[in-house]
Amino acid sequence: MEYVHLGRTPRIHPSAVVAPSAVLSGDVEIGPLCQVLHGAVITAEGGPITLGAHVIVMENAVIRATATNPVHIGDHVLIGPMASLSGATVEDEVFLATGTRVFNGARIGTRSEVRINAIVHLRTELPPETVVPISWVAVGDPVQILPPDRHEEIWAAQRELDFPGYVFGLDRETPDLMVQLTERYGRSLARHADDAPA
Fold first, then answer.
1. How far is CA 178 from CA 59, 161, 166, 185, 186, in A?
2. Sheet holding 62-66, edge to edge
3. Per-residue pLDDT tens over the stretch 115-131
4. CA nearest 65: which of 85, 84, 44, 51?
5. CATH superfamily for domain 2-197
6. Range list of H helices, the chain
7. Which of 29, 45, 115, 156 is the most buried (most CB within 10 A)?
């Protein structure tokens, strides 16, 4: 289904195929010969989303842009089932495997692979042809690629990236952080109340 969100309507190239159960919302542009499969959600929450040519978005993947972090996906990219990508740039010929997570402000270089359940964290830059192994975490710029059992090293790098500040504009040390975060984010998401089928 296609929805008008914040006055913007999805645009789909005539050669692209979007499954009837996929959701496209707002300022979304689907390029030539793309395939968007069942259950995928591509939602522009105030910023644009562009998919180049020959992009495949598999079942139940989620792609979300924000006003601060638009999404650009280059040509010949495969986004696997249940992958999640928020506010990031993905260059050409990238493989994002099943269950991968890519966070706001990240950039994934040409011909990189993010393997099953791996994470590319906030504001992390993967140089071209980088591989993030299964379930590992890429964090920082310059990037560190760490196994999940090295939590203290991941957290040390992640803390400096300031997720609540960068994404929500809130200080991590705020005593009622989750109260403020959910109320602020909830008000932003409530803008969907005025969405209408395209």
1. 31, 18, 15, 10, 11
2. 144-146, 137-139, 119-120, 101-102, 84-86, 62-66, 41-45, 23-25, 2-4, 196-197
3. 999 999 999 999 999 99
4. 44
5. Hexapeptide repeat proteins (2.160.10.10)
6. 151-161, 163-168, 177-189
7. 45
Give per-residue pLDDT as tens, 36-55: 999 999 999 989 999 999 99
pTM across the whole model: 0.93
Q: How confident is the model at residue 93 (pLDDT cuts 50, 70, 90)?
A: very high
φ, ψ of residue 187 in degrees (nearest 5): -60, -40
For 157, the token pair is 């790098």
Pair 141, 123: CB distance under 8 Å: yes
Distance in angstroms (rounded) separating the CA atoms of residues 110 and 89: 11
Please check whether residue 42 is in contact with residue 63, taking contact to mean a CB–CB distance below 8 angstroms. Answer: yes
Contact between 64 and 46 (Cβ < 8 Å):
no
Q: Which amino acid appears at position 91 of this protein?
A: E
| Residue type, position 182, single letter | T
